[in-house]
């Protein structure tokens, strides 16, 4: 056999062997030695936009993400974990506070939105700046007004912890923690934040019945609110100007800052109304303390402007009785099992 053919054969064998080894490592990283978890998709929900195909869910990955969500070392001074602005009792939103606060007594422009049903979102944050969950997670970690750290420092802190090294090794099959691993683990944990077990959901399944006031509120809601806050997610995911006057101290014009298009001035993402009764304050800057105050805005305080949503040209007419009926219905959207689920609490 010619020597050149022998060399070629050896090279082929080496390449083949390396390919098999690489494939074996990938299998180990993404499921062979992990307890895989199926993504939760409640009955009646549409197909989610994000299916975790690039970040397969596992019990170990979710547990690591849970630990990181409550980990102060992801912030520069150790005092501001993700959970500091996203509290479980507030449906993982900013609980009874107007705007997010962070390192060095700083405040952001906006209210920390509740975190749930995230796989059904195409855009993240109030202005839709991010289109992937991992990018949305990275921003507050690096943001100087929130957690104010950088991944070089964060990785050094995590790498120094023998338990974290073991947990990252188990999930990602490498002894060297990388920023993307931190974000992927957090994304896996956030993927378990699925809420679909409110009284409303039980009524839809024939397991409960609305009171007369709740039914009246639901009827009014369908007629006057459902276009933007569309069932079953209670948001259509769009960006709209709802006629809020600009706070002169914040000077926040919403999606305009992202697209630089005049037609997006004063537009913010329509939030889901699930768990709305426990997730005050309300609106993008948390200016309203109660649901009644928020509804009163739509009833009589909508400010006209060039980009005002046409559906609100005349506000949303309702008398006092109708307003209170709508509030009664909105309370049926509270998922108590979600906001008390021990699997989502601090480990």
Please give the structural blueprint.
Layout: H1 3-32, H2 59-69, E1 101-102, E2 106-107, H3 133-142, H4 151-159, H5 162-172, H6 179-190, H7 199-204, H8 212-224, E3 239-240, H9 256-259, E4 268-269, H10 291-300, H11 320-331, H12 336-339
Antiparallel strand pairs: 1-2, 3-4
Helix pairs in contact: 2-6, 3-6, 8-11
Domain Cytochrome c: 201-334
Keywords: Heme, Iron, Metal-binding, Oxidoreductase, Periplasm, Peroxidase, Signal
GO molecular function, one term: peroxidase activity
The residue-averaged pLDDT reads 92
State the strand order across the main sheet. 1-2
The proportion of strand residues reads: under 5%
Uncertain ranges: 1-29
Give the tally of β-strands: 4
Distance between the termini: 64 Å
Please bin the fraction of helical residues. Answer: 25-40%
Number of helices: 12
- Computed CA radius of gyration, to the nearest angstrom: 24 Å
Approximate shape: globular
- In the CATH scheme, the class of the domain at 199-338 would be Mainly Alpha
CATH-defined superfamily of the domain at 199-338: Cytochrome c-like domain
């Amino acid at each position: 056999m010619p020597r050149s053919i022998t060399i070629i054969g050896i090279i082929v064998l080496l390449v083949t062997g390396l390919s098999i080894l690489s494939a074996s490592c990938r299998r180990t990283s993404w499921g062979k030695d992990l307890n895989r978890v199926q993504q939760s998709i409640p009955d009646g929900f549409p197909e989610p936009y994000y299916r975790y195909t690039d970040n397969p869910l596992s019990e170990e990955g979710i547990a690591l993400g849970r630990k990181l969500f409550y980990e102060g070392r992801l912030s520069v001074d150790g005092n501001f974990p993700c959970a500091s602005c996203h509290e479980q009792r507030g449906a993982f939103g900013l609980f009874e506070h107007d705007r997010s606060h962070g390192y060095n007594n700083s405040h952001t422009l906006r209210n920390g939105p509740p975190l749930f049903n995230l796989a059904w979102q195409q855009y993240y944050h109030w202005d839709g700046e991010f289109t992937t969950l991992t990018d949305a997670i990275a921003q507050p970690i690096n943001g100087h007004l929130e957690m104010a750290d950088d991944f070089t420092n964060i990785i050094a802190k995590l790498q120094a912890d023998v338990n974290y090294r073991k947990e990252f090794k188990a999930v990602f099959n490498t002894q060297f923690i990388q920023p993307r691993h931190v974000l992927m683990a957090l994304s896996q944990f956030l993927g378990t934040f699925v809420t679909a077990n409110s009284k409303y959901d039980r009524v839809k399944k024939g397991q409960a019945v609305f009171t007369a006031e709740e039914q009246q509120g639901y009827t009014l809601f369908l007629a006057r609110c459902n276009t933007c806050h569309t069932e079953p997610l209670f948001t259509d995911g769009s960006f709209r100007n709802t006629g809020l006057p600009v706070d002169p101290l914040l000077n926040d014009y919403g999606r305009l800052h992202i697209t630089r298009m005049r037609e997006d001035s004063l537009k913010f993402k329509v939030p889901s109304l699930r768990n709305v009764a426990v997730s005050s304050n309300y609106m993008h800057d948390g200016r309203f303390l109660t649901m009644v105050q928020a509804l009163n805005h739509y009833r009589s305080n909508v400010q006209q402007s060039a980009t005002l949503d046409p559906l609100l040209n005349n506000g949303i007419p309702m008398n006092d009785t109708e307003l209170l009926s709508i509030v009664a219905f909105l309370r049926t959207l509270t998922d108590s099992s979600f906001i008390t689920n021990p699997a989502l609490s601090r480990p």
